[in-house]
Amino acid sequence: MISHPQWAFLIARVVTAIVLIAHGFDKWGDTTATIEQFQTFGLSPLVAYVTSLVEIIAGFMLLVGLFVRLSAALLGERCLARS
Predict the structure, then answer these.
(1) What's residue 43's pLDDT?
(2) Domain count, the chain
(3) Contact (Cβ atoms closer than 8 angstroms) between residue 34 and residue 52
(4) How much is the pLDDT for 71?
(5) What pLDDT score does 69 carry?
(6) What is the DSSP letter of 67?
(7) For the packed helices 4-29 and 31-40, what is the interaxial angle rounded to 10 degrees?
(8) Short-list 9, 14, 22, CA closest to 61
(9) Which are the contacts of 17, defined by CB distance < 8 A and separation ≥ 6?
(10) How far is CA 29 from CA 23, 32, 43, 62, in A?
(11) pLDDT band at residue 14, thresholds of 50, 70 and 90?
(12) What is the pLDDT of residue 15?
């Protein structure tokens, strides 16, 4: 049986994955606005595509529980790159 802290980690992982997948598809669906926003930060349009793909793929990896640490590291790197 799964203990209470493990349930909490599972719920947090699933909710985070769903949010990331939704935001990744949002960025991918409206690429022109995403590219314009990234260019205001001084970033290349390629970064907009990479960011949306990383959010979608790593979000699915988190949701399934596959390579959780790797996907979390990729997502953390994307967050640090934006700040």
Answers:
(1) 86
(2) 1
(3) yes
(4) 83
(5) 86
(6) S
(7) 100
(8) 14
(9) 59, 60, 62, 63
(10) 10, 9, 19, 21
(11) very high
(12) 93
Q: Are 52 and 20 in contact (CB under 8 A)?
A: no
What does the pLDDT read at residue 80?
66
Burial of 1 (0-12, 13-18, 19+ CB in 10 A): exposed
Chain-centre distance of CA 42, in angstroms? 21
Decide: helix, strand or coil at residue 80.
Answer: helix
Q: Which amino acid, residue 18?
A: I
| CA 38/CA 56 separation, integer angstroms | 18
Range of the domain at 58: 4-82
Give 57 or 77, the one with higher predicted confidence: 57
